[in-house]
Prior knowledge:
Blueprint: E1 42-46, H1 61-72, E2 78-84, H2 87-104, E3 112-116, E4 124-130, E5 151-157, H3 165-182, E6 186-193, H4 205-221, E7 229-233, E8 242-249
Parallel strand pairs: 2-3, 6-7
Antiparallel strand pairs: 1-4, 2-4, 5-8, 6-8
Amino acid sequence: MREAKFSSRLFPHLILVLGLFPAAWPKAQGQVRSETEPGVATIFWDSKDSRGPRWDLSEEPGLFLYLEQLKAKRPNDKLVYIARGPLGEVAWYLLAIRDWLINTAGVKRDLVFTFDGGREKELRYQAWLVPEGAEMPGVAALPPEDENSVIEFTHYPYQSACEYCGIKGGFTLSALAEELRKRPGRKAYLEFFPCNNGVGRGRFTAARREASEAKRILIKQGGIASSRVLVKMKDDRQRGCEARIWLLPLRPNSSPGR
Length: 258
C-alpha cells in the first residue's frame, strides 16, 4: 500500500463547503469544451463522458485541458470539482484530485475548490472553470446525518500486484481520517478479506499485514484514537484481497450488522 502522508503536501485541507449554494446538481454540458464563454462558469469535464475516473489522476484528459487553458488564457480562473457518489468514493477522489492539482500540476491552492455533491450509487464528478467575478456552480446542502446510522464508507483492493491499488488505498485512509475528525461520535470498522491464493491460515498473512498497517496509519499519522479504529478479518472468496470500511456509531458493540 502507498502510505498515506498526513502532511501539508499530500493531505491538504479538503474544502467541503456545503449549504452555501442551494441549487441542485448542476446540469452537465455533455462534452469536454476547449473554448469557454468569457465571464461565465463552464463545465469543461464530466466523468459521464469518459470511462470513469482513473486512479492514476495524471491520465485524466480533462486535467490537461484545464491546465492548458489556465496557464495560457485564464490564469485567474478557479477550478471547481463537484463529486457525487458513495461517501468514501467522493472523499478519496476529491482529496486525491486536489492533491494532484496543487502538488503535482502546480495549480495555486486558492484556485482549487472541491465539493461533495451528495450520494449516488456510483462515483460521478464534474469540473468547472469559474472566471473572476462569475457565480460559483450550485451545490445542494446534504441532509442531516442520523447519528445512529451505519454508513458503508467504501472498499478498496489491497493486492500488491495491482498497479494503482496502493494509490487508492492510501488516499482512502487519508479521507477516512478526515471524515472521522468531522464525526467525533463515530468509529471506523475495517474488514479485511484474505486473497484467494494459498491455503489454510497462510491465506490470512497478507490481510493481517495490511490491516495492521492501515490501523497504524490511521492512529499514528491520522491522529485517530485507537478506540475508534476496529479491524476484523473476514473470509469470503468473492471478496478476495479487499478491504471494506464502515463508519459506525461510537456506542459499544456496534457493527455493520447491528
